[in-house]
Each structure stands twice: as structure tokens, then as C-alpha cells.
Amino acid sequence: MKRNLLSVTARKRLGQVVYHTFMILLSLIMIYPFVWSVLSSFKSSGQLYGGSPLDLLPKPATLDNYKRLFEVLPFGKFITNSIFLSVAMPMCMIAVASLTAYALTRLEFKGRNLLFMAFVATMMVPSHVTLIPNYKIVVDAKLANTYTALFLTSMFTGTNAFNIFFFRQYFLSIPKDLENAAIVDGCSRLGVFFRVVLPNAKPAIATTAILSFRSIWNAFLWPMIVINDYDKLTLTVGLKYLKEWEPNWAVLLAGASISIVPIVIVFLLFQKHFMSSAMNSGFGGK
Questions:
Q1: CB-CB contact of 129 with 123 (8 Å)
Q2: How far apart are alpha carbons 47 and 61 in whole angstroms?
Q3: Residue 171 to residues 7, 107, 272, 283: CA-CA distances in angstroms?
Q4: Nearest CA to 34 among 256, 262, 278?
Q5: What pTM does this model have?
Q6: What residue numbers bound the domain in which 183 lies?
Q7: What are the tens digits of pLDDT across the range 4-26?
Q8: Domain containing 224 — which CATH number?
């Protein structure tokens, strides 16, 4: 009996060792290209082109690639534009999505479920399918080459449909008794939303903030089509022009490394709420 217990314990430990070893190796394989890209941005052209892919450390490290990056194109302006859009647009998207989701969750009106299914259906339509109609609308409305076109398409197209779906499912997990108590105390419906619902939906807000920020920050095709003015270009579109102006891959890696930093910072800031939302995402029923 004692031997059997020991053998079971030994098997469990062996299984854990194998599992963790496999996961560590898999993590290293996934992280390696990212680490190589960042460290290669500090290498000279000779070391980058003549060195081995397994040679990670720059010898010696240099900032010439980053200096060249800001000399070729106005990358400071590109970064400013991307930060502005990636902060302002998610805020607008969250405001529209949360209000819409609350109406679909708590307000009783005819066709509510049908309207919700229509929102969900837009998630199934690839953005490339609506690219030409959206551009035609933007041109007819004389909004081409303006940030207004980017704001409107992000808030009122399929891009924001997931946020509406996510908020609705999360609001379903909030007890109605909290809202009813606030209404009895004389709180209006909007007051309930801002004072009761939103404070209890911080994990959902953090999750949509991270995902929306990442989506806007990495957006390429639509900003490239709509925006034509150099002073209004985003960082991702600027990297496309950098490839045409600068043949040195070390400089391109420097630009790509800068584009990664804001996403990492945003995730670290909202990590606590994001993980809480992942564990308690509110995908339960009514």
C-alpha cells in the first residue's frame, strides 16, 4: 500500500515536471522572436546581416538606429497621433458600447433581442467586406483625411460590436437588486448606470480598454486608406512608409520595437482588472 502511494505521488510529480518543462520551452519559443527583434534594434547593420540568428546580444550596443528612425520620417508626430487616437477612440467606444449594452440588458422594449442579434451578426462580417461601402460613405460625407472618419467607423461598425456583446454579458451578472435599491432611493436610470453599474463593471471596462487600445494602435488598412496627410499618419502606417524610405532592417526593427512599448504599458496598468475579468467574465445567464 505504501509503495502504491509513493508511486502515485512520484507519477504526479513526474507529470508536473514534464508539463512545466514543456510549457517553459513553448514560452521560450514564442518569446524568442520578440526578444530578438528588440535586441537587434540595438545592433549595427554589419552584426545584424552577418551575425547568427542565435546571437542575441548586440556587440556593441548602439542607438544609431533609433536616431536614424527620427531623421528619416517625423516619427515623433506619428507616435503622438497614435497615442491620441488609441486613448480617445477606446474611451468613445467604451461609452457607446456600455450605454448600448445597458439598454439591451435592462430596458424592456419591442425587438430588443432582435437588435442584439443584429449587433452580434456584424461580428461575423469581415471588415474587408464593408471597406468599400464605408469609404464611399466617408467620401460622400466629406470626412476623408479626418480623424472623424476613424472615430465614427470604430464606434458604429462591427469593430465595437464585440464590446457591446461583452458588456451585455457582464451586466447580466450584476444583481438587479442593487439597481432596484438605487431606484427606490430616488436614483434615475442614468444615475443607476453611472453610480451602480459602471463601478461594478471595472473588470469589463479594463478588458475592453486593453482590447480596444490594441485594436486601434495596430490598425493599419483603414487609417492608411482614409488618412492622406503626413502630419496625421499613425505609427503603423508610418512604419509602412519607413520601409520604402529606409532599407536598413535594423532601423525598421527599432520602429517596430517602439510600437510594442505602449501596448505592454497599457496591459501592465490594467493587468489586475483584466485578469479579474478573465476569471469572472460574466458569461452566465440571466
A1: no
A2: 10
A3: 48, 12, 19, 9
A4: 256
A5: 0.81
A6: 74-279
A7: 555 767 778 888 888 899 999 99
A8: 1.10.3720.10
